[in-house]
Amino acid sequence: MTENLAQIDQSPLYHPAIIRLENITKTYGSNDIMVKALDSVNVTIERGEYCTIMGASGSGKSTMMNIIGCLDRPTSGEYHLDNLEVFNLSNLELATIRNHKIGFVFQQFHLLPQMTALDNVILPMIYGGVSRQERQERAKYALERVGLGNRIHNRPNQLSGGQQQRVAIARAIVNNPILLLADEPTGALDSKTTEEVLEIFETLNRSGMTVVVVTHEAEVARHSQRVIWFQDGQVVHSHLSPEKVGITV
What we know:
Elements: H1 2-7, E1 17-29, E2 34-46, E3 50-55, H2 61-68, E4 76-81, E5 84-85, H3 91-101, E6 102-106, H4 117-127, H5 132-145, H6 161-173, E7 179-183, H7 191-206, E8 210-214, H8 218-221, E9 226-231, E10 234-240
Parallel strand pairs: 3-8, 3-9, 6-7, 7-8
Antiparallel strand pairs: 1-2, 1-4, 4-5, 9-10
Helix pairs in contact: 4-5, 4-6, 5-6, 6-7
Pfam family, one: ABC_tran
Keywords: ATP-binding, Nucleotide-binding, Transport
Domain ABC transporter: 19-248
C-alpha cells in the first residue's frame, strides 16, 4: 500500500485533479424502503482549490463528505483521490489513506480531555509510525502554525472553544495531508473566532493545501473560491460564486 501511494504521481495516467467523483450514487435501505442519498454525482476539485459544499438538510452534502473522506463507500460510481481509485480498497488501505492524505476537522473538536494540546496533535503520527523525536517536532510546528505555540501543554479544559478548534486543525495538518476536509468547523464558535479559524484555512490554502468545507453558513462559504451546491442528492451548481450565496441555508 505504501509503495502504491509513493508511486502514484509517476503513473502515465496521472490526472491533476485531486478529487474526481464520477456517477457516484449512494443508497440506503432495501427495495421496499430505499433512500438515494446521492444520485449520479459528478464533481471535480483541482489541487490547491478551496471549495465549500452547501445544501439544505438532507441534500446529500454530509454523505458526500463521508465519501470524499473515505469514511464511507459509494453504492456505485468511481472515486479517484489523488489519482488513486479508492472504491475497491480494503478497510486497512482506506485507513492508511485517511492517515496520510486527509486531515479532518469537525464541528465537535474530538480532543482527548486527559491529554495536552501537544499530545492530542501527536496522536495521528503514532498511528503513522513516525519516530518519537519527529512527532514532538512536527506537533510543535503544527501548533505554531495555528497560533498556539505557547499553549502546547494545556489540556482542552484550559482552552477556549476557538483554541480547541485550533488544536484540532493542528492535529489535522500534522501529517502534511494533501486535503483538509472540514465538516461544519465553525458551528460551535462565535463570529470572531469563526473569522480566526477561516483565516487559518485561507493561510493553509495559500500554502498549497486543498481545502473542502461542508457548511450551511453563507459567511463561511464566502471565504472559499467556489461553492458546490447540493439538492436532493444531486449537484445543482458545481461552480457557484460564493458572493451569490446570499442567505444562510
